[in-house]
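Blackboard transcription, Thursday session:
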Amino acid sequence: MNTSARTPLRELKMVDIVKRFPGVLANDGVNFDVRAGEVHALLGENGAGKSTLMRQLYGLYKPDSGQIIIDGQPRVFQSPADAIHAGVGMIHQHFMLVSSLTVAENVALGLASTRGPRLDLDRVAERIRGLAERYGLKVDPSAVVWQLSVGEQQRVEILKALYRGASLLVLDEPTAVLTPQEAQELFVTLRQMADDGHALIFISHKLHEVLALSHRVTVLRDGRLVGTYPTAEMTRADLARLMVGREVLLQYDRPPAQPGETRLQIDGLWAIGDRGVDAVRDFSLTVRAGEVVGLAGVSGNGQRELAEVLTGLRQPSRGKVTLNGRDVTHASPAERIAAGQCAIPEERMRTGVIKDFSVLENAILCDHSHRPFSRNTVLNFGEIAAHTRRLIADYAVKTPTAETPIKNLSGGNIQKLILARELCRKPTVIIAAQPTRGVDIGASEYIHHRLLEQRAAGTATLLISEDLDEIRALSDRIAVIFEGRLMGVVDAATATAESLGLMMAGTRQTE
Amino acid sequence: MSELFTLPVLLGILYSGIRLATPYLYAAIGETFAQRSGVYNLGVEGIMLMGAYTAFYVASISGDLWLGLGAAAGVGAMLGLLMAFVSVTLRAEQGISGIGLHLFGLGLSTLLFKTTLGGVTSISGFQPVRIPFLADIPLLGDALFNHNLLVYVAFLLVPVANWVINDTTLGLKIRAVGQNPAAADSLGVSVGKIRYLTVTVGGVFAGIAGASLSIALINLFQENMTNGQGFIAVALVYFGGWRPWGVLGGAMLFSLVNALQLWIQVAGIELESDIAVMLPYLLTIVALAVAVRRAQQPAALSKPFERGEA
Amino acid sequence: MNTFSTRIRWAAAAALLLAACAPAAAPTSAPVPTAEPQIIEVTRVVAGTPEVQVITATPPPAAPAETFRVAIVMPSSTTDMAFSQSMYEGLLAVQREMGGEGAMEIAYSEGMFSVPDAAAALRDYASQGYDLVIAHGSQYGTSLAQLAPEFPETSFAWGTALDTFQAQGVTNVFAYQAEAQQGGYVLGTIAALMSESGVIGISGPVEAGDAKLYVDGFKFGAESAKAGTKVNVSYTGSFSDVSLMAAAAETHVAAGADMLTGSSQSVVGAIGVAKDQGAYWFGTQWEQTFLAPEAVVASQVYDWTGIIKDMIASHQAGVLGGKSYTLTFKNGGLVIA
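(Written on the board underneath:)
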């Protein structure tokens, strides 16, 4: 009953795909094709329509019009089951794994057993080992998924698809959660699969990965097809221009840092995470005026908890934090703001804004109790409106009106508004956690420029990011965190991706 | 106290405990299936009442206990389907719709009881079946192997349910749907179908739980005769950590302590009756507090599934 | 046939015993205020001064010009074979006597275990202008005390209880209760004499109210009738838990009891156990024989008709409350069937 005996698909075409959501034309006549033996990259900014297109390929949405053609035969996928049956496998960005089940159980889920109603997990495990061997996807079939690292979980996802006999694999931003080394290992696996005759669709917005891995690249922008190109003929600048629709600066020119006095000092900090175990362990770091210190690390290694401690949202269990010479270890968020610190929070919809409030209300969330915005607890709406209009204009926030609920804005525009709100206070220290996660390149570029302006003005910035490119583009020094511990601090100018990757994987800096 | 710990008394407690545990086992095992797939059916009590009434009425007019049992299972299946329709298809809030189902079962069974039976009557229910050889085991034989058929089936259900949940492809789908329906859906497992199935099976077992009261254990029907047992059964699912063996442990603990407290009173041991009747509940709470294990709780419990929500 | 004749035999014995024992038993069984022969004991309070008024007979209420409207709210159902059924059947009997539905209208709400629901139902009936609204459950007392003053034209009745709330200035509430210990004593005596094992099992619902009176009377009667009789008592903590009541009866049988009794509507489960296990059952509150004719020896039946009739007559005479009634053997409110 295993489906791998099916003849592998040779070519899949999506023709004139149109998909409309209320108020949005997500795919507007998109044409796309992929062949056996190639890696075809699908490039585009957030909201360009990549995920929508692929969800139709996988039977999760039905196109409003257009056709999916496999080896010359038009096909209609009512559900993922149909797509799986046609040989399509999908590696979702958010893993579709049942964390309480074992690897073998996750792989066997939904498949018929060779023993009728009884599970045949031993045989499944045997086949998993065979596939793992062949494609370098090392994983223990009897391990429970929640115990696995993110990289291992991704391998389980790929194994699930291969086990089902998928000859076309869609990988949705597969490197977003990986260290550079893990990404390299993944690429080796993907090339092997392509050489074996699989067709691969690689969704990404990381240009260097697209260039390194794919044979062809298709660029989408605002739901429309920009074009399909042989990768070998493209450069990074070409791709960035096609993706954003204008010239994009990929490198920032910045004068050498001239660090001043110490603004933020973290000494031997410990903090307990949500699961009750230490998430930050003996962490020490110094950030000085006029420099950007990047904190790199794979997601879930204590960055979030550290940011929460530094912004007063989480109590440390030990250690000391000094802000502009003042002990703020246990200070409230308000006290830190008063001491000159501002924060760009990681989860902007949860801790950065109140999503049902208007742009205007969110703009004065912290300052509403001060003059000129209020006097004796009464809000001065005239002043607030004028202030909000200034922020919207200065930071190029795209919003219909100042009264629009902020949840209707795009991620990039929300982030710009937060930035505007925070930076207009003229902070001396900025804690920026994942400032451009989920933000399109254009807005990212804008935010980066604003942060570099702050650096030039002498502000001390701690940039916490899982995007190594962002860290390297902005930082003067790079610190790496692994399992809550500081692995080392290196000079950004001389750090290589390899050395940083080793530290992100838990190797201490050796000097 | 010494009066209580004589062998006949201990065996008597065991015998009563097994009988008391029977309806809980049916209802709680059925609920375990539903909850493992992510549906929280608080209407078990209502289905039990309808099952108890249906079994009694059909058995008393037809004279056939098996027909009564089958009718109770059928009514249970229909009410389970109704709950599945409301909670899976309509995606209603499950706690509220469960309470609705309870009130519906309570009201309808009372109304039917009044109009068709008028008052309490009794019938001759399933008779004890002595299991050859086993019932002759000294001491324990009579307490364990001299029960009616529905009692044996209730206890056999535990290993069967355990096998289905842990060792079959269906069980794997049920577990996956309850933990991460989006993941199951992405592999072509129909979340809706699985949940319809488990909630309907849960309804069948709840119907049989009611029948076990009205045509096997007490052999009469009275309005609201389940008296909260369906809710205790839901609690036992939590108590048992969503595992059939855990449910068995919980049902037996609760029932044995209940049998014990009756003996404490009957034996004339100085203990306020109000405190004695609280014992099973107290002990259950204590056992829950001591053995807290939330790890197995289906992550998607009581959350309706909609494709494309991430 | 055998069981039937047994029943006849014991019913006869019960009647004999009733005649023989009741006069002797009553004074010892419980603190019942019984001094002079009377049909109904009435304590009537006017302006806070208690005054005992003796009514020697209760005539059927005068045929009214318009329909007399009675409403009742009760915890269990009209077919519970116990507490609620006894009152409901009493109302039906009075209705027949008065000339059917044209003369007396009966409205009822059953299954009102929830006190807030019951309070709402009581208020509804009162505001719909019923002449007499009966709160048939001691748990309804607090609600009634608040409600009654708002409807001064309406008579309320509350049982089982003795308090008519005169102390709180309420004048339109009747109270009624059954001296359940009297029948308990009689049935206990029979049980002790019948028992071969010398062990009797009693399972009550909650250790309070007329259930406790009955249980205590039964125990006292059994122990007085035959020295050495062992009486085991248990409570289930619930008026409605049929399962646990059945398990309690099983436990009593396992402990050697061959005579069983119990109180509340949940006893139907226990009667089944008595039948299956070859034990004998003694009922209370309502005639429980037909459920298991071979097992039920006798039942103490509450006959509320006298009280109902007096309440109606009082209301028509302009006395809306303040009387406190008691069912006893002597006033015919308690009957052994």
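Lecturer's comment: Residues 7-36 of chain B form the longest helix (30 residues).
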